[in-house]
Amino acid sequence: MAKAKENVPKVDVVLMGAGIMSATLGMILKELDPNLTISIFERLDRAGMESSDAWHNAGTGHAAFCELNYTPQKADGAVECSKAFKIAEAYEVSREFWSYLVEKKYLADPTTFISKVPHMSLVWGEANVDFLRKRYAAMNSCPLFTDMAYSENHDHIAEWAPIVMRGRTKKQPVAATRMEMGTDVNFGALTRGMIEQLSKMPGVTINYHSECLDLDPDGKKGWDVFVRDLSTGEKKTVNTRFAFIGAGGATLHLLKRAEIKERKGYGGFPVSGLWLKCHNEELINKHHAKVYGKASVGSPPMSVPHVDTRIIDGKKELLFGPFAGFSTKFLKNGSLMDLPSSIKLDNLMPMIFAGIKNVPLTRYLIQQLRLTPEDRHAALREYVPFTKQSDWELMEAGQRVQVIKRDKKQGGVLEFGTELVVSEDGTVAALLGASPGASTAVAMMLELIQRCFKKQVQSEAWQSRLKAMAPSFGISISKNEKLVQESRNRTRKTLQL
User: Is the pTM of this model over 0.85?
Assistant: First the structure.
């Protein structure tokens, strides 16, 4: 890409993509420094319409209440909870920030984006029951999980989630945990609420139908960002001191074009999602929980089935899944050339090694692609035994790109988490990966600010404002019951939970 001219418009911050990450970062930065100028560029005609959209994700407020893949069992049988504690702390930070936005009246009605939906884990079979029993014992002693309930009683579990127990034989060993304070989050509505507020703030411009093509260093510790107007085909350049690539699946391509050493070695593997959507109102109304199961042996974390109550645009919905699909697109509205064009010399070997070491994932995807409607219904009946195939329809979810990165020992590894990539000088940052993604967006963006705005964040003014937005950020509250309760009491009231 040719160098930009000297007379191009200048802004302090460029945000690529108008999803949950960019919206969160934009709001935090404007609160820290109202004088900052920010330009946001989005390919589509509306914010939060790719991975952030309510129908493109599970909407689970990931707090490790029910997600069994966050608490793996070690070889000696013990349950490792450190990842769960970290994610739970991060979600408390998200709740605090959303509460702050409501208190400031930036978000008018919290019920438009967050609802109280209990989180449950459900397992069957003696080995799985033993695992869940150990998990409960390991987690219940932590202040973040002291409200967790546990039962192996069929009738008790049926009170929590009647549709998952109806038709189940009492001879089958079952166990469940329940966190009453679990949440369902419409991340699309939340994103659009923040973007709307940003659009009202001085110095912020939102550019739709605008695709970021490239970014080049300007030789003055800044960046020239090249953008195409998809409505007119016109190309323009914007100069910025800081660029954030939060473009979902398109992030990898843009990161590869940024001339920073940290870009090397990263690849991506796309996975699409499918849901079974219930249209039987009786079933929908009888169920009010997010019920997560346990992935089959050898299956990837993304394969964990769950029966989800969703509250989308004020309407109660019921979904089961996800089932995996495959497309070479990195975005739902992307190109079939996304995967082939992402393969470069620097990430070829990591991708090959990751592929060799993740044969179970390949096998899982092949199996998923071969599923018939009857196969999907059989999987559903393991969780909702007494249901008809005609009560459900297949719908397409969003597109995810799992991170592949270079590894000294293994050559390349497939990551199922979220990865923040930051240039050495802190002028460029990118967010790769999927789960827990949106749920921990606030903590991720606060970490980004600490790494990219090192001088400013040390000031008394910024520290004070950060404390107001997210009081528990940077503090390990997992061992402090008083701090946990203070945080939850505040957010429960503000968010109307």
Answer: yes
